[in-house]
Amino acid sequence: PTILCSFGLYLNESLDSFRSLPSSCGGFLRLSRPCVYVFPGGRGDSALVGVSGYSLLVNGGDQRKSCFWRLVRHLDRLDAVLITHTGADNLPGINGFLQRKVEELRVQEELRDQEKNQDWIQNLVSPEVRTFRSLTGSGPVQFRRSAEEAALTLRLIERLDLEVMPLTRGPTPEPLVLFSKLGVGRLDMYVLCPDGGSAELDFLRHRWTGSGCARGGVRQPDGTRAQVPVPFLASGAVLLVWTPFEPDQSPVRVLFPGNAPQSRVLEGLHRLRHLDFLRTPTAAQTKTKVSTLR
Questions:
Q1: pLDDT above 50 (res 134)
Q2: Which stretches make up the Microtubule-associated protein 1A/B/S-like MBL-like domain (predicted)?
Q3: CATH number at residue 144
Q4: How confident is the model at residue 15 (pLDDT cuts 50, 70, 90)?
Q5: Quick one: which of 126, 150, 162, 183 has the fewest CB in 10 Å?
Q6: CA-CA-CA-CA torsion sign (66, 72, 74, 78)
Q7: Is residue 293 situated within a structural domain?
């Protein structure tokens, strides 16, 4: 009986978002200033980074019932979804959200030619998703049964025909400009790790079975090398920097370390040591002299 009750609760949480498909309260949230919402998601959190005109979802928590849904449903769109690592602590929430979008797509296809259902279709309110950034990139990736969450993510992304871009560090510490608007500001993303050609990332993409550890990459204080799960060694870590247009406003710096080892994160930050906004505990735009447009 206990097992059946637990299984019933799991199904109830998994299907909850589909039961509420018709809703008319989406698309009214407007963000007037930079903000970060953090959603407790079981063993892994999720976060929404928003500025005026741009929104970024980071990871999804370990619950199939997406912890971020009650807020995200009120956005017109998600400009990007960032998956820092491949794991059961961040993918289930993303998969639950994508499964809802697949269900919406199915309903739209079935009812498109029925005029009486047009109003109902318009009430499908999950936000549009524009791009994904993940460790897998858009190339072929082989995941076995033990990595079923990662495999499900890839299938759902393919079903929805979403653009996927790699989350890897380049040879030079140049930022990726996520958003830039005259009179508003600029949002930059610095990828701290992993390197695009790292052995750990190659192993994760093509040979990882979903379990086991890889030896190497993280040295202990006593000189030995620790056994660290492959998704941790290949985890992405990013630094987001918001530079407002107004010179009297201070930049905002947000670090998302993913599951990367601390040594990898510090190494990535060390590569950015020449940037003025990292030289002081509190960044000031008058000191950093960072232009909002290039």
A1: yes
A2: 22-286
A3: 3.60.15
A4: very low
A5: 183
A6: negative
A7: no
